[in-house]
């Protein structure tokens, strides 16, 4: 019997344990932190052995395969040791993909991947495909493969999940964009992070498809120097492409082997140029999977977006409060500020991942009236924007931040929570941060 050791008992870890058990592995789960009661009960129900607040070497080093949670860096001593011993260390996505024959659409990128994943799933499901959604969203991929496998999956993939892939090959891969993010995990080398994203195409063949943003210099340059085997389908707002998607006089045009799709961008439910790109990517996937054009159009007109992503919360005294808690890097915040049509009070801060704020200067100068810092250490934000904005306030809680924003913002202005940072200093995750923002706004 092969031994599977799972490091980290979160959603992906517990899902992998369930699948491993079902596939006849001897399974052991180890978590350095505390395991939630909910997950402990699942492990007990499946009679899976587990430990918390420690990693017992003797129970881990005898593994045939180790699945590590995306949150554990490669340079941790235990991982280094396992690799030196020749033990295969994989991600949940790599492990689970071996046990399904499904056609997989894999979506990655620094920004836009959640919206694109949910939008793609929405169109494909409405188009009649029996399709599951997993990856960074909802129930883990492994758990779904174990308990309700489907013929199609759309997976939202982070660079950490791709780092642990060896043979994983989606039939359709989407790369939304690449901007510096998580550089703390990649030795502060942007090229390492870029290579990590491109692992999504590493095992694709000539029968597969690679959909990407042709306006993104980083992607275009990488493809020139590292050609991939899959068939390329670019999308662009600025140039005409022969096969793929482009914008012409306010219309999205998609061509795949002389099969054409047209739609006016004015009818898109999600506003902003970045959402035109997300729509292009989702529509290209849908074209490939033979969804009716009328269905694609209808879905792009009706899709209402993702919680914590430029989500309009309430209008109070003619001030619009907007929750963009999902903006955990500078580029995501760039899109948010770019979408603001009037003067804005900006709530920003958290755990800095090596951010470079310079690309935000023009937008901050043009649109931001005041900055409210929300983090344990705000010195970098204050230094970065001290010359752009007169009014910078430091706060230690969401309630305080929202109350100050309420005092500063005037009629027809916006209050935008778009942190550009991870949430781990004051909050459990970006969802909790967004929920606290919405509660604080409702209490005004």
TrEMBL record:
Belongs to the MurCDEF family. NCBIfam families: murD. It is found in: Cytoplasm. It catalyses: UDP-N-acetyl-alpha-D-muramoyl-L-alanine + D-glutamate + ATP = UDP-N-acetyl-alpha-D-muramoyl-L-alanyl-D-glutamate + ADP + phosphate + H(+). ATP binds at residues 109-115. This is UDP-N-acetylmuramoylalanine--D-glutamate ligase. GO terms for cellular component: cytoplasm. Residues 107-285 form the Mur ligase central domain. GO terms for molecular function: ATP binding; UDP-N-acetylmuramoylalanine-D-glutamate ligase activity. Pathway: Cell wall biogenesis; peptidoglycan biosynthesis. InterPro entries: Mur-like_cat_sf, Mur_ligase_C, Mur_ligase_C_dom_sf, Mur_ligase_cen, MurD.
